[in-house]
Amino acid sequence: MKKLLLSLMMCMILISCASASFTSLGTFQQDSNVTIRQLCTSCTYNNITSVVYPNGSLAIGEVSMNELGIEYTFGFDKTNPEGTYFVNGFGDLGGTDTVWGYTFEITGTGKPINDNYPFALAAIILITFGISALFMFLTDKMEQPGMKVFFMILGFVFLLAAIGFGMITMQEMNVPENISNGSIMLLFGMGLILFVVMAYILIQIIRNAMEIMKYKSGLKVEMQEYY
Question: In whole angstroms, what is the distance from residue 19 CA to residue 187 CA?
């Protein structure tokens, strides 16, 4: 029984040590220079054995870190792919080679990924788009030209807002850069087309309203002259 308890305690200690050795350096912006750091009070050197990309490929091999007192640093600038990077290295802790390792995150914004934020933005997009559709429906139902113009402008504004929220969502979801840029360009193109179409419709509504106003004004003058 004592041997079993001792074995369990040793396993817990080993697991704790392994967990402590792999920590996170933090979150950094894409294409920025990340300073890889390691602290050791009894080391004479620290070397990085590898930095691994999120897809598992090797970014750099073994390199020596720069020493400044008890802190060892190395500047790493190959941070184009987004995701989790793995840093592995070793130092002569107390004269014995001791391995260490940790991770760091690269995102497009330099901020940690918030799993709930994109869903909240998606809900806002749906609500905004729904409001825009409601205003478009009211535009079609209104008979007075002034009200048509009013609801048309409101619908247009909310539609542009929905497209803008869509662009923000693509950036916050930290999707791969080529997909994100392509999606943003697609949304921008859709927004430009909608802008041209809705501007044309708005101009037509304003022209019709002006024609009606001219007609009513002329009719009123003729009636006054008749009497």
Answer: 43
- CB-CB contact of 28 with 110 (8 Å): yes
Which pLDDT score is estimated for 67?
93
Cβ 170 vs Cβ 205: under 8 Å: no
End-to-end CA distance of the chain: 118
Cα-only R_g, the chain: 32
Closest CA to 158 of 124, 186, 183: 124
What sign results for the dihedral spanned by CA atoms 163, 168, 173, 179? Answer: positive
Rounded distance between C-alpha atoms, residue 59 and residue 74, angstroms: 14
Whole-model pTM? 0.51
Q: Which of 93-102, 179-188, 198-207 has the lowest mean pLDDT?
A: 179-188
CA distance 8 to 5: 5
